[in-house]
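Final report, closing paragraph on structural work. Over the funding period we assembled a curated collection of sequence-structure pairs, and we close with a single example.
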Amino acid sequence: MTKMSHIELSPQGRDQALIKDALAHQVSVVIPCYNAAPWVARTLASVQAQGDVVAEIIVVDDGSTDASLDVLQPFAAAGDITLLTGPNGGGSHARNRGLAEVKAPYVMFLDADDEIDGDILRGSVQASRAQKADVVFSQMEIRFTDDTPSQLKGPLGGPDQTERQIFEDWFDGGWVNPSAVVWRTAFVRDIGGWNEAASVGDDGDLVLRAMLADAVAGRNEQGRGVYYRGNAGSVSLSGGVTGEKLSLHIEQIHEFCEAARAKGWGDNLTRNYAALYFLGRKAFRTGHPELGHRALAVLHDAGHRGHHGTKMHNLLAGVIGLERKVRWFGS
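Its predicted structure, as stored:
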């Protein structure tokens, strides 16, 4: 019998092996899928490439009418994913169905047309543990389906940014896509999961509720989430501006501003209320004047009577009113 040689790990090697073992099976990835047949295999491959930090991949097909299930079935048959199916209920409903099945201490919600890259999951778990964070933000790359160059954003969080600052910055374009966010599973369950009534800005709704609930936000420097803009039929695609969506968005932002005021985050909240102004401006521009006036009425009740925009816009809107300015000049 040939004698097997015994290889002794160095202390550094043993430490690295222990760290690797401690990070195994820590993150469940929930993927809502609706008509994502062209992309979902790519998305799954990006998760599988993360290695043993992934505890499970839960794909919730939300009533797809394309070939999504044909793409997903072989992954399910091989045991690579848990596949849940059902009628269309919206992205937040699908995410909540997946969340109910999660077994790992951490969870990422990844849309079926996006992907993740580098050691984003391993780095996020390490950051959460080191920073005692309930939610960890990573860098996000925005890739466009046309020839527009990619953009990089983030990461948010870390010791220099409080939950109040993240709340305020989110309204100023400081948002990140779910592909760059990892949650402590227990925390996201404690705040009620995804708001299925929020048909617009549902990822922002979750993050803003988390900040109001005093979430500790962490920052991860490893890897990135990749958010694709412009994929027709994707879960996150807005589907155009409608009166219903504008109305819901106005009420949503109003409620968040009032909640922040009640929390003692100041009576001004100018940047947050400015989001209502731009929604009112959009309402006038898209033929929904009653919603534009509703947004302005909320602003006036909160003590905001000025205009937001360029100096020329502010001057013209101040003289002739926002509705006339938008109607006459188109913006």
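The mean pLDDT is 88. Residues 199 and 244 are 9 Å apart (CA to CA). We thank the funder for supporting this effort.
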